[in-house]
Amino acid sequence: MNYHLRYLPLPDVTEGMVLGAPLILTEKGVISFSLPEGHLLTETNLQQMKVRHAEFVCVREEDTRSDDERADAWAQAEARLQRIFRAADLSLPAMANLYEAVRAYRRT
C-alpha cells in the first residue's frame, strides 16, 4: 500500500488520521507534547494540540493513484522543480542541498 504525506492546518485534521511525522510541541524551549510517527489521532489528541496552539500537522494518507499516475505526477513535479532552479548554480553546496531537500519533500 502506498502513502503520501500532507501538511494540514489543525482545523482540517480529524480523529482517525495517522501522523506522517513525529509531532513535537514546545513551550519556551521545553517539549510540552509529543506523538510518534504513525500515531492514530484521537479527539483527545486534537484537543491537546489545540490547547498547545499547534498550527499544522503532517498526516499520512493512502495514495490511491496507480503506479503510472504516481510516475506522471512525479515527472511533472520534477519538471516544475527544474524550472524553479533553472538559474541556480547547483555546483554550490548550499544550493545543491536546497534543491535536494525540496526534491525529497516533493517526492513524499
Structure description:
With 108 residues, this protein is α+β, with helices and mostly antiparallel strands. The chain contains 3 helices and 5 strands. The strands form 2 sheets. The chain has a 3-stranded antiparallel beta sheet with strand order 1-5-2, with no helix packed on it. The protein has a two-stranded antiparallel sheet with strand order 3-4. α2 packs antiparallel against α3 (93-107). The two termini are 14 Å apart.
Main pleated-sheet profile: 3 strands, antiparallel
Low-confidence stretches: none
Instruction: Give me the strand/helix succession.
Output: EEEEHEHH
Structural class estimated from helices and strands? alpha+beta
How far apart are the termini?
14 Å
* Large-scale geometry: flat
Q: Which percent range describes the beta-strand content?
A: 25-35%
Mean pLDDT figure? 93
Short description:
The longest helix has 18 residues, at 67-84. The chain is α+β, with helices and mostly antiparallel strands and 108 residues long. It has helices at 43-51, 67-84, 93-107; strands at residues 3-9, 18-19, 23-27, 30-35, 56-62.
